[in-house]
Amino acid sequence: MKAYDLLYVFFAAAAFTIGALPFGRWLGRLVGRVDITRQGSGNIGATNVARELGLQWGVLTLVLDLMKGFIPVFLISRYYPDWRAGPAFVGLCALAGHQFSIFVGFKGGKGVATALGVCLAVAPLQALMAVCVFVLAVGLSDFVSLGSMLSACSLPVLFLVTGMPTLWVVASVLMAGLICFRHKDNIHRLMKGEERRWRTRR
Fold first, then answer.
1. Short-list 93, 168, 165, 155, CA closest to 127
2. What share of the chain is helix, strand, coil (3-state, %, to 5)?
3. CB atoms near residue 177 (< 10 Å)
4. Dihedrals φ, ψ of 101, to 5°?
5. Dihedral (C-alpha) 128, 114, 170, 135: value to the nearest 10 degrees?
6. pLDDT tens for residues 152-170?
7. Residue 29 and residue 11: Cα distance in Å, rounded?
């Protein structure tokens, strides 16, 4: 194996490991002395942390999870610009690490914040537009899960219509697919009318 191949493997492994850091679970133990994976939805992401520990801790979890996607992609883009597939590949590794964390028995969060961090590093305008989709969807439906999936699915469309490279369109499709897959239980609850709302907390 050549030296640059080893470098790619290292970056992929590092991004996956960074993505796997379960900040939501650690905050649960530190702040609430609880295992967040056994509270509420059992998810380590910002929404469950906000519901179980308080909004401020949910926001902190969101920022930390976002940075797990942003930092690896930003560093690869800046210091290895010749590796054209690098940012997308590393971003997908970070997302997979968050969703299938080695620190939580290969379980994890839904990946919305981490995917947002990935996109903010390469396409901040499109990422902010996806955030607007999320806010609008949650505002109209009161379902965070629905807003999360719609915003994730809007990214490939936004990337396509704004002329992003094909590589990033494909990567955004994969990210949206992973996020929707991790929301499979939410989809079932939405179809049955049993999904928990945000504002009413029902």
1. 155
2. 75, 0, 25
3. 13
4. -70, 130
5. -30
6. 999 999 999 999 999 999 9
7. 29
Task: Delimit the domains of the chain by residue range.
Answer: 3-192
Q: Do 91 and 69 form a contact (C-beta atoms < 8 A)?
A: yes
| 3-class secondary-structure state, position 101 | strand
Tokens of 26: 């650690």
Query: What is residue 1's DSSP assignment?
Result: -
pTM: 0.93
Q: How far apart are CA 81 and CA 133, in angstroms?
A: 30
Work out the angle at residue 180's Cα, subtended by the Cα atoms of residues 168 and 56, and round it to the nearest 5 degrees. Answer: 95
Instruction: Write out the DSSP string of 109-129.
Output: ---HHHHHHHHHHH-HHHHHH
**How confident is the model at residue 58, as a pLDDT?**
94
Q: Give which of 165, 83, 75, 70 is closest to 127, Cα–Cα.
A: 70
Given a cut of 80, whether residue 201 has pLDDT beyond it is no
**Terminal CA-CA length for the chain:** 55
pLDDT per position as a tens digit, 134-152? 999 999 999 999 999 999 9
- Range 5-25 average pLDDT: 92
